[in-house]
Amino acid sequence: xxxxxxxxxxxxxxxxxxxxxxxxxxxxxxxxxxxxxxxxxxxxxxxxxxxxxxxxxxxxxxxxxxxxxxxxxxxxxxxxxxxxxxxxxxxxxxxxxxxxxxxxxxxxxxxxxxxxxxxxxxxxxxxxxxxxxxxxxxxxxxxxxxxxxxxxxxxxxxxxxxxxxxxxxxxxxxxxxxxxxxxxxxxxxxxxxxxxxxxxxxxxxxxxxxxxxxxxxxxxxxxxxxxxxxxxxxxxxxxxxxxxxxxxxxxxxxxxxxxxxxxxxxxxxxxxxxxxxxxxxxxxxxxxxxxxxxxxxxxxxxxxxxxxxxxxxxxxxxxxxxxxxxxxxxxxxxxxxxxxxxxxxxxxxxxxxxxxxxxxxxxxxxxxxxxxxxxxxxxxxxxxxxxxxxxxxxxxxxxxxxxxxxxxxxxxxxxxxxxxxxxxxxxxxxxxxxxxxxxxxxxxxxxxxxxxxxxxxxxxxxxxxxxxxxxxxxxxxxxxxxxxxxxxxxxxxxxxxxxxxxxxxxxxxxxxxxxxxxxxxxxxxxxxxxxxxxxxxxxxxxxxxxxxxxxxxxxxxxxxxxxxxxxxxxxxxxxxxxxxxxxxxxxxxxxxxxxxxxxxxxxxxxxxxxx
Length: 611
Prior knowledge:
By secondary structure, this protein is an alpha/beta fold. Helices cover 42% and strands 13% of the residues.
């Protein structure tokens, strides 16, 4: 089989990768060909060896079995299977929950474990935790644990449930923009509308996302489905080929209401959910691929493991705090096909405004509470684009009232169209989202960076260091909660490594090692940082200026710590230290610190016992 450019590059570099990493994620966009890559890895490097392939859903098992069985002896594990592993076959294909005794026997024998849709791996869950622990404790020293996914991140603040505890690194193999240039994927074209009457503020998000039991009634009560139908009826007529669409809904009640609206417009449509029998689902999806069914409405079954390259419209009716869900679902429409020039993405959930275009998404093996709290601001990504610099991108919200009394509410970029006229309704009645939503009411990262690098060297040069460098005990023991966060940042900036890191894993190893040392200092000195609701950059800026929240003792002591760094390190090293220090301070603020800490990288009881 002729490999794509990114696949061949990865195969060529594979021997070097496994020399550096034992457990890693291979990241490539939906439609890039990760299953083909997995088969090629097995064929080139593990032929005749013992391999486990894991995934979480039956439909994915079927796809993987078909791909791997052409060249290898594959056994798909059944729930009731017993006996020894790898007797008469070389590839064991299963979910994490099937025939646990057989799987436990297989792990110490395996030369390779591949996990499809690896963002599903929960190091603290009932299925994968057992597998990860078995591999770490009993797996062959030379074996590899490889994850495949387009979105290597988990939306959890639980520090025991992070992908970094299962994998050491992300190997970034291909990005969407490169694959569009190669013709593997098509360009997404976004049409996004802000639905004013969708009420999300009162919904409890402590689970990490909007619970569908509360979200679905809010959607149905709003005009979201009306906006989706208006947009769809216009966009389907602009395509050069027949429209074939996938609609992503929050739950069955939303999906059924959506299905009725689509059929009322005279469009052939069908509904698939997790409860749709496999045979019926496969029949419906086959008819959808040929275009016999134009619109496929779904609940929780098309975001992963579904491939219809002819799908040229994605309609997103599921507000979410998960950029994984956003990225996975939009990615399903980007596969190329004959005559397909683009994929129209109709977003009436404000996910584009929240996360940004899927081709711009960034991923991390570590996350925390703020990783989804920030997305409660449904204009989060737009706010990040306007950073106060002249080069910042400004986005407009069209407020033109349409003949049906709905507002247009299309979101579009300023200076992208003649006279800033809305490309949807053809009028100008727009407001600057950044200003109207007051997205600049707190100091942004760019402004803090500029203030820090200008202010610290200047103040440090004028300080009486013989006084301030001796004030550490006093500064910490008299600090308020806000002052503790400021001091934690300053201590992190002084302590953390400024050396370049080759991988994200190395980056976080350095950051977390420093965080652990700071936690050690705090618990030794009986200093407790109470968990904060959020991390406010203004606190760091306030300390630079000895302002309203950070008093003189804490401000000057903190600056004395930071100032020594500028004397002893290059600008590049200081920059790297600054970026890590922000993240360390953020983690200490969100997670807090006490003698009860029991984190994977710092256990307070063990630390105190070692003194």
